Amino acid sequence: MTLRTAFLAAALLAGAAAPVLAQATSAAPAAAATVTTGAAVTDANGGAVGTIASVNGDIAVIDTGTVKASVPTSSFAKGDKGLLLGMTKVELEAAAQGAVASQQQQFLASLKPGTVVTDQNGGAVGTIEAVEGDLVTVATPNAKAKLPKSAIAAGPKGAVIGMTQAQLEAAAKGAGSPAG
Predict the structure, then answer these.
(1) Order of strands across the sheet that contains 158-160
(2) Is the pTM of this model over 0.70?
(3) Contacts from 130-135 at CB under 8 Å and sequence distance 24+?
(4) Residue 153: which residues within 8 A CB-CB, separation 6 or more?
């Protein structure tokens, strides 16, 4: 991993708005860049990186076709073919995917008894009753089910699983409820 990739990964994790990328390919100062939705983004060698999907304040979201990565607008320079970024498409995608994986690991490590669990639509499923290694016991009003941590993701309101309460209860009863 290059140093600039590490800096971008840190910025993606922290949501930092400070410049984290090289902005010019020469010793001369880079021209100010106007970052707008739909603008093409290339690397210093002219390789396609992606397009600007959205801009919110001083953060732009680059859509590479594989990932959407948030980057400070100050990280762009004005180029002949649009916006320049000090990273290649491969480096940006690797940094974004690493940031997502790191955030998921931090989230999973934070799971504890009492954490509310919802389904993908925000519907109540139950609460975490126990965390044992890579397994999490989710208690609903009518059943308990042990799920692998990998079945839980961070959602807008906390822990999310891919089943409704009724689906989880049916699965738990079909497999036999864990003793506890």
Answers:
(1) 144-148, 135-139, 124-132, 116-118, 158-160, 153-155
(2) no
(3) 130/180
(4) 104, 107, 159, 160, 161
Q: What is the pLDDT along the chain (180 residues), one digit of tens a residue?
A: 333 433 344 344 333 322 333 333 333 344 568 999 999 999 988 999 999 999 999 999 999 999 898 899 999 999 888 899 999 999 999 888 888 778 878 888 888 999 999 998 889 899 999 999 889 999 999 999 999 988 888 887 788 999 999 999 998 887 654 544
- Same domain? For 95 and 13 the reply is yes
Contacts of 115 (CB under 8 A, 6+ apart): 127, 128, 158, 159
Residue indicated by tokens 């762009």: 76
Locus of tokens 């859509």: 63
* Rounded-to-integer distance, Cα 73 and Cα 114, Å: 40
98 and 137, same domain (yes or no): no
- In the chain, the number of structural domains is 2
In a domain, 180, yes or no: no
Statement to judge: residues 47 and 126 lie in one domain: no
